[in-house]
């Protein structure tokens, strides 16, 4: 046994206008979130492959996605130096209605000049983001 659950088989999910740069699955595996190089995060129902919602608060590529241990919060990081925290439970509960960012966005944090390359969530739901420091032009490093 490979340890890989092939319950849903192979799916082709279409909807991103740009290249997909990151994905994450919910803890139970029924949802997948994907981020693209246009700054959009999409939420997918893996039981049928349907697109549930699009979240957009990034102005550049989404490079990393993470999810809280209980699965109710999604965190996205990007080349725009933003870390966005989304109310994933609200999105899932209201996916059949038109959602605005202000309905789903819990918090936005911006680093000074560090694009977010990877995110992680600890057992206590602390978020860690890492990136490469890129000082503004003209500054000494």
What are the SSEs and their pairings?
Blueprint (H helix, E strand, L loop, with lengths): L19 E6 L5 E6 L3 E6 L4 E7 L5 E6 L5 E6 L3 E6 H6 L7 H4 E6 L5 E6 L5 E5 L10
Antiparallel strand pairs: 1-2, 2-3, 3-4, 5-6, 6-7, 7-8, 9-10
Looking at this protein, list some descriptive labels.
four-stranded antiparallel β-sheet
Q: How would you explain this protein's 3D organization?
A:
A hairpin with a 3-residue loop joins strand 6 (73-78) and strand 7 (82-87). The chain has helices at 88-93, 101-104; strands at 20-25, 31-36, 40-45, 50-56, 62-67, 73-78, 82-87, 105-110, 116-121, 127-131. The protein starts with 19 loop residues before the first strand and ends in a 10-residue tail after the last strand. The longest helix is centred in the middle third of the chain and has 6 residues, at 88-93. The relative contact order is 0.16. The model has no long low-confidence stretch (mean pLDDT 85). The strands form 3 sheets. The chain has a 4-stranded antiparallel β-sheet, with no helix packed on it. It is built from 2 helices and 10 strands; from the N terminus they run βββββββααβββ. Helix content is 7%, strand content 43%. By secondary structure, the chain is mainly beta.
